[in-house]
Amino acid sequence: MKCVIIANGALEYTDSTISLIKNAQLIISADGGARHLRALNINPHVMIGDFDSIHPDDKIFFEQKKVKTISFPLKKDHTDSELCVSWAIDNNATDITLLGVTGTRMDHTLANIFLLKNLAQKNIPARIMNKHNEIHVVTDFIELIGQPGNLLSIIPATEKVSGITLEGLEYPLVNAEIKMGSSLGISNYFKKEIASVSVKKGILIVTKSED
What is the mean pLDDT of residues 133-145? Predict the structure, then answer.
């Protein structure tokens, strides 16, 4: 089941974003992310969070539409995004896209990226998307569709990543090793419309970007 989680960060209302949300079988609003869904006139299936960042009018708006609400205390051990991811998994989500989870708070952005690591280790396809980036965490293999010239970068998320093979890119790799802190994998780009990243050991953050 495809799931989209919408948080309170930056979100551009592009046709592709709207289509992505509307075609999801499960739409989760993370706290203040309700503002985006209200602006798009899309009802979530559930609203989750401590509701410290939601505008009261947005909360009332969806409660009047009988949208399910799951509230947590302000003092808690997990972010609203992580609570939404956990709820999605418990409710049979098999593919998760996170929207509105990047912005001015770099701590939240990094924490959300590392949520993808947990999902990758559970073999649940997931990604973070915004206007310029599509972010994945890869523990084995991923195939991405893009246009020639689209940027693709790989960043080790473990002390080292070995057995890295890149295909369909301007700078391919075969069974390579990259250590954490190296910038070797930055600013590669698509040579074909399909690119693949394989990993034998370790974890990579993979980003497809457009300037």
Answer: 95
Contact 179, 172 (CB under 8 A): no
Q: How far apart are CA 22 and CA 109, in angstroms?
A: 24
Contact (Cβ atoms closer than 8 angstroms) between residue 91 and residue 5: no
If one compares 111 and 3, the residue with the highest pLDDT of the two is 3
What is the pLDDT at residue 53?
A: 86
pTM: 0.91
pLDDT over 90 (residue 28): yes
Confidence of residue 105 (pLDDT cuts 50, 70, 90): confident
Cβ neighbors of 134 (< 8 A, separation 6 or more) are 127, 128, 144, 207, 208, 209
Encode burial over 181-190: b for 16+ CB neighbours within 10 A, e otherwise. Answer: eeebbeebbb
Strands 160-167 and 173-179: antiparallel
Give the Cα separation of 185 and 78 in Å (integer): 31
CA pseudo-torsion sign 101, 105, 107, 110: positive
Q: Rounded distance, CA 19 to CA 131, Å?
A: 14
Sketch out the chain's domains with CATH numbers. 2-131 (3.40.50.10240), 141-209 (2.60.120.320)
Mean pLDDT of 165-177: 96
Would residue 17 be called left, alpha or beta, if left means φ above 0 and alpha means ψ between -120 and 50 degrees? alpha
